[in-house]
Design brief:
alpha/beta, Cobalt-precorrin-4 Transmethylase, domain 1, 2 domains, five-stranded parallel sheet, 18% strand
């Protein structure tokens, strides 16, 4: 359910840096009557954008029922609600259950996308996740823990593709995850990285091979708020002068916006 008069907005606050909040998300938070924000993950500066007279709630200590009750009550009173999630709410944002509850209550809502921590992590690594002729697939998943994962999506199964893989919510299970990835098909020499709190002032980037990354992660003490990335696209050597070019800017490749041009010796 969603229209131009929605009274509840699910807003992606981005990965941490408040400057990565979208213009639309900022505008809604600044004008909302009620702001419910994920206070264990979202930068407090984002919540600080709320009006001084707005109702502001931190959702970390609240249950689903409590959150929904506030949203429904406010919407029925004609208020605008900003429900602020970390990153992009479509990725491990737990918004499905909230949208379902609003549907049952007949409350209109919209979703405002945000910058995922995955892309902030890629920026920190200065990598292209879909490097030409190296990786054209990105798998977003998590290790199975207290929250189960469908067997068809086990890490062993996904590893067979040897694509670029991003593990959310798994830093505390890194040893188990790495074992399954190697058993499933990744070589232990595959480039890997841990990115802690991407885009925050205390961001940390740890690089190594898949075979090394467990020990490196344990040494760092990082067990949460981190992404694990795996794949050949992470290899810094891809930036060498003879790196594979894409077709997008290849002068010998014609497309709808550009005719075929003479080939040059330039790499740009």
């Amino acid at each position: 359910m969603g229209n131009n008069h929605s009274q509840v907005y699910f807003i992606g606050a981005g990965p941490g840096d408040p400057e990565l909040l979208t213009i639309k998300g900022k505008r809604i938070i600044e004008t909302a009557d009620v702001v419910i924000w994920a206070d264990s993950l979202v930068n407090p500066e984002v919540a600080g954008l709320a009006r001084s007279d707005a109702e502001v709630y931190g959702s970390a200590s609240m249950s689903l029922e409590e959150i929904v009750a506030i949203m429904v009550r406010a919407a029925r009173e004609g208020m605008t609600v900003a429900r602020v999630h970390t990153g992009d709410p479509a990725i491990f944002g737990a918004i499905l259950e909230q949208m379902a509850a609003l549907e049952r209550e007949g409350v209109a809502y919209s979703v405002v996308p945000g910058v995922s921590s995955l892309f902030a992590a890629a920026a920190a690594l200065q990598t292209e996740l879909t490097a030409p002729e190296v990786a054209q697939t990105v798998i977003i998943t998590r290790a199975a823990g207290r929250t189960p994962v469908p067997e068809r999506e086990s890490l062993r199964s996904l590893a067979a593709h040897r694509a670029t893989l991003a593990l959310f919510l798994s830093a505390g299970m890194i040893e188990k995850a790495v074992v399954e990835l190697i058993e499933g098909g990744y070589e232990s020499s595959t480039p890997a990285a841990i990115v802690y709190r991407a885009s925050w002032p205390d961001e940390q980037v740890i690089r190594g091979t898949l075979g090394e990354i467990t020990a490196l992660g344990r040494q760092s003490g990082i067990v949460q708020q981190a992404l694990i990335l795996v794949g050949q696209a992470l290899d810094p050597a891809l930036k060498s002068a003879d790196a594979q070019r894409s077709r997008l800017y290849d002068g010998s490749f014609a497309h709808g916006r550009r005719g075929k041009k003479l080939e040059t010796s330039s790499g740009l």
